[in-house]
Amino acid sequence: VERVFSGVQPTGNLHLGNYLGAIKRFVELQKTHDCIYCVVDLHAITVWQDPEELRRHIREVTAAFIACGIDPKAHIVFNQSQVSGHAELAWIFNCVARMGWLNRMTQFKEKAGKDRENASVGLFAYPDLMAADILLYRATHVPVGEDQKQHLELTRDIAMKFNNDFSASIAANGHADGYFPLTEPLIAGPATRVMSLRDGAKKMSKSDPSDFSRINLTDDADAIATKVRRAKTDPEPLPSEEEGLKGRPEADNLVGIFAALADSSKSAVLADYGNAQFSTFKGALVDLAVAKLGPIGAEMQRLMGDLSAIDAILADGAGRARVIADETIRQVKDIVGLVRS
Ligand code: AQP
After folding, report:
1. Which residues are annotated as catalytic?
2. Distance of CA 84 to the CA centre of its chain
3. What is the ipTM score, two decimals?
4. Which residues of the chain form CATH 3.40.50.620?
């Protein structure tokens, strides 16, 4: 059976990159897969979070999942810290992964910056926890943005080393070869890496100090219009073919956003807007973004009006996730040789 797992950190403003690169794909995969979608709060605390804000953000990501169209009854939606198996398996993976592997992770280098000595141990070990999130459910597919590709490769390396290191014990415990699956990333479509609206060389990100760099899922029509109109562009009109976007990162980004929002492709968008001035194209992009994101923001706001209903969804999802997770933890303990009663 094919199972999808993915997570989003409750670290602040969810933006168009999170939506197009991840959450929109989560929604689509519900039709064909068993899906588990997680608010990864243990990942969030690898950098300090204000406790009140963290609580609000956990509920806000949950509201965003549901407002975007994830069905928490047909699939599983929960927050990571409510299922202890994530932390337990992450510890075992800390003992499987090698320092050298983690030293190569570019996200750690970017997030730790120059002051690496002062980064938390959790931030360094973050990819091991991510591998645990995925493999706890023996997920076969993980929809993510391009920025997570390296972490998915590490997840496969951990699964492979675990399967090798414990191959005799895996067989002795009656499991088929390869206890953990080699999970496939699902990175596809025209917006796997949405860039900042202010700088075509930088990823759109929650932590960018400029709010004009991103479109938040909660932005109203005026905010979306202002941000798109102010988005950096070059002076040339749009090219009529995709080839012409090479070397024009800002144009490429806006065309990719348009294509993803319209469920279309960059070449189809350029067939309609090739040779158009940016002012014309940006006007159409504002209309499209407002039409697609407006209802999501409004629904998020409505859902946030009843926090106990959100907490009930998380509790129900955690209960169902725990059934799968506990079974994996029991099996892994037996494989590794940890005595349990
Ligand atoms: N710019 C992006 N384009 C496409 N996909 C993106 N994702 C994030 N940014 C983009 C995808 O969204 C999912 C959830 O991301 P996350 O919140 O777990 O972590 P992140 O990648 O660290 O997100 P941010 O916004 O960049 O946060 P900060 O600023 O805190 O680092 C993932 O699937 C991710 O690929």
Report:
1. 111, 203, 206
2. 21
3. 0.96
4. 3-186+306-336
Q: Tell me the pLDDT tens digit for each residue of 84-100.
A: 999 999 999 999 999 99
HEC assignment per residue over 258-287: HHHHCCCCHHHHHHHHCCCCHHHHHHHHHH
Neighbours of 6 (CB within 10 A): 24
Q: Which of 337, 314, 258, 303 has the alpha carbon at shortest distance from 68?
A: 303
SS3 content of the chain, % helix, strand, coil (to 5): 60, 10, 35
CATH number for the 3-186+306-336 domain, one of 3.30.565.10, 3.40.50.620, 3.40.30.10, 2.60.40.10?
3.40.50.620
pLDDT digits (tens, 9 = 90+) for 227-253: 999 999 999 999 999 999 999 999 999
Report residues whose beta carbon is within 6 angstroms of any ligand 1 atom.
8-9, 11, 17-18, 21-22, 144-145, 147-148, 192-194, 203-207
Provide CB contacts within 8 A for 102, sequence distance 6+: 108, 124, 125, 127, 128, 154
**Residue 183: how many other CB atoms lie within 10 Å:** 22
Contact 9, 126 (CB under 8 A): no
Distance 316 CA to ligand 1 centre (A): 26
pTM confidence score: 0.96
- Best residue among 206, 213, 214, 216 to mutate for probing ligand 1's pocket (most ligand atoms within 8 Å of CB) is 206
